Amino acid sequence: MATQTFVMPGEVLSEDVLPAPSNPSAPLKLGPGLRHTPPSTVTTTLAGPLCVDRKKNAIWIENNSGRYIPQTNDVVIATVHHSSTDWYHCSITPHTAFAQLPQLAFEGATKRARPQLSSGSLIYARVLSASKHFDSEIVCYNPSTGKSEGMGELKGGMVFNVSLGMARRLLFNKHRDEGGLVVLDDIAEQVAFEIAVGRNGKVWIKADGVKETLLVGKALQDTDQEALKIDEQRKLVKKLLRQI
User: Fold this and answer.
1) pLDDT tens track for 1-36
2) E strand or H helix that includes residue 173
3) What is the pLDDT of residues 174-193, one digit of tens each?
4) In 10 A of CB 113, how many CB atoms?
5) Half-sphere exposure of residue 215, counting CA atoms within 13 Å on the CB side?
6) Torsion angles phi and psi, residue 214, rounded to 5
7) CA–CA separation, 135 vs 20, rounded Å?
8) How many Cβ atoms from other residues are within 10 Å of residue 57's Cβ?
9) Cβ(129)–Cβ(137) below 8 Å
10) Neighbours of 237 (CB within 10 A)
11) At residue 219, does pLDDT exceed 50?
12) Is 158:123 a contact under the CB 8 Å cutoff?
């Protein structure tokens, strides 16, 4: 279970608030709102609850409202705006500068064999670097493995907006007992669908038909906006499933 304390921007975190992993060799995972200064200084860049998950050796600042700020290693859903000789220039949010996606930043891509993206194409990518002084750079592979791991162009489907807090819950809470989310599991028992979640509050969903895709998106958004508890999520899913 994660623990929380409230922090303000510019605070240096003391060692006693950092997670102590059961495996000493496990790297500390810094999430949104935190900056690492070598060798071991961790500074806050946002105001909000400091969330520490000792089981996963992860720490981040919850920022449910406000604007998304790109952070290194975040996965995001972006839209290609235009391209240049070696780059795709992509929109992550309407209020930030375009993120730069190298045209060869895909698994197995070469100059002769690479994805051909056009304006409006959706991509699932990882933030390789982020700074307030430079444009963010994104790639469609895991830098540690070189594998796509589900990243790349998202074809078909629809994109739905959720809060930044809901996006984090969807990404980091893998089980029903973590985060109190059962809405997707319950829908999946009756409806087949694909999903990609961006830390920037974008969720891509693709089901067999438009009605099914809209159902999944509406269920997620209602759960998010109304802060539904587990029993309320199940009632919502039953109600929506009767409509298709």
Assistant:
1) 444 588 888 999 988 888 776 666 778 888 778 888
2) none
3) 545 555 799 999 999 999 99
4) 8
5) 25
6) -65, -35
7) 34
8) 17
9) yes
10) 25
11) yes
12) no
